[in-house]
Amino acid sequence: MSGQPSNLGDILAIVHSCQSFNAVANQLLPTLRSIVWNHTVQAESMLGGLIDGADPLLNMGLGTGGGRQAAPYTLGTLYMLSARLGMASPPDTTYQTIVEWCATFEPHQARLASDRVGKLAKGIVRWAEQHGQPEDALEPLRLLITRYPPSPGYLTSVHPVFVQLCCTTRHFPLALPILSVPIYEIDKEICDLHYTDNLLYHYCGGVALGALKRYSEAAEFFEVTVSSPSTVASAIQVEAYKKLALIQLILYGKTTPPPKYTSPAVSRAFRNSSGTQPYLKFINAVEVADREAARKLAKDVEGFQTDNNMGLVQQVLDRLPWLAVKKLKETYMKLSLEEIGREIGLSDDPKGVRTLIVDMIAVGELSASIHPDGTVSFEGESALLPQPSRIQIESALVQAREAVEALTALDRTIGRSRDYIQKALHQRDSGGMGWQDEESMMPPMRGESWEDNL
């Protein structure tokens, strides 16, 4: 490495010599990038190694309670820690070292090397899995995802890694604070994002929300996945389409068309793929209120189990009586419990019908009254709808305006991107209904799938 540091000790000397942000950005960063780009394998091994058997990260205070003392050297330690956790056989690294780095790093320095932040996030998951405790990666990733972006509305390469891990470890509630913040900012300068990062984040977010029975929010996440711009259908998008359709059946008893800006390739893939035909038949049976056909399709088709969607299918079946009652309300103002039972297929269970109506009223799904003589009077739905205050309305309008402005700016940026235009033209000219090969991006299955929680 002529003219470059030849060992980790030399690199550490440069790290310690760069005391200002300008020195870090203009001297240390080019040096580290040059080392990695010119000698990839050897450089990663050197950066992640030890010095005469001693751990330089520990010597800098990381893992010993001195993380804040190491914060001024964030860029250097980021390169070292991300290199180490990416090695096949890394030196022993303690949980405390990883957590301290994530809790004390200097965000402005870390944003100079967004690719290393993404590498670190994946390395933390790999380290935890190697130790047989994948849950140990959750807290470091939570710290990383909350401290790294300039504001919570940024999508980063850490987002899909964290939310996917929440799903694979079944710690769905841990993802809620992240999922509850709308994404309105994408900055390639500080976020080393790839197309599948957006898809995987929203897909896994939909799974987590669905597992928590937050179906309306789950539908929004799956819809973002399905309608993300593409000229070739992605495997992730098709899987999201399946789950979106089932959740819509749970919510409304029918499916709704995807947004008009959804790529025709994605819609064609869902309609024409052999793997989606069981879904189309099931959807049709539910929408025409053929309960027997729906139950038979759910029982006889293996495709739902293969896709780990049997939980959602069962939720649809459980919701059929609820949906049937709500459909009756559209036609009748008053019915007896016996009449309702006949209409929804529970004619031999009047107590069950009463329990169903009571449950629907209790959870706010139905506005109705049960009279002593066993008749049910359906009422207007206005009482079920919360009335927003003027302050809430004004706040929502401000948020909507800011979102529109951010999306407009992003659209202009993408429109000026030469790489994006060239890729779009290339994919258009290639034609066909090919699928992007993103199966490898899907969360790994370990025995019972995490998607079974849906």
TrEMBL record:
The keyword Cytoplasm applies. Pfam families: COP9_hel_rpt, PCI. GO terms for biological process: ubiquitin-dependent protein catabolic process. InterPro entries: COP9_N (IPR055089), CSN3 (IPR050756), PCI_dom (IPR000717). It comes from the Eukaryota. The keyword Transcription regulation does not apply. It is found in: Cytoplasm; Nucleus. Residues 214-384 form the PCI domain. GO terms for cellular component: COP9 signalosome; cytoplasm. Keywords: Cytoplasm, Nucleus, Signalosome. Residues 428-454 are annotated as: Disordered. Belongs to the CSN3 family. This is COP9 signalosome complex subunit 3.
